[in-house]
Amino acid sequence: MTTLIIADDHPLFRSALKDVIRQVYPEGVLEEASDFAELQDRMAATPDADLVLLDLHMPGAHGFSALLFLTAHYPDTSVLMISANERDDIVRRSADHGAAGFISKSASMDAIGEAIRAVARGDLRFPDGIDLAVPGVTSEESGVADALSELTPQQFRVATMISQGLLNKQIAYELSVTEATVKAHVTEIFRKLGVHSRTQAALKLGQLDLSDSSQDDD
Description:
By secondary structure, the protein is an alpha/beta fold.
């Protein structure tokens, strides 16, 4: 049975996607996530999910960090990026970071349904006219992506919280762990990212953000 996860913070759009998915996979198992933390929880509960429909602007994520989390820890799960932002460089970066497809939120429900079917069966589905042979990521961004792929799921979550400015005590409370555990995670995160401070770690994650002109739409 096909298992799909809709990761988008807009309830109305999630509802529209659910209607499409029910037509495509009436017997499928469907889960939802409204932010990155919830997506991590959903994936931990359903690690064999077949497909994630991922909003490019997930709350709690740094640009492409949610995509990198999925491709690093759940390589057998296909990811279809969905966004109103269709810039060529954004699509190329999505492909370079491991997405199996990219479709606009302005596409018709029929087109979205066909993209879901294609990606779920293992095909790639990207907008026509975009040359994916042209690199979308810089070597620096690629290095950050490689470093993030070495983080455990819990370290990934801690790194995200560090970039949001949370202190060890706050992170410990949010994750229901001890401060000593958080400190151990922070030490490993710094080592893997090759940094020595929280500010440097946040700047590293910032390499995955979208440019200012790319953040106008969801």
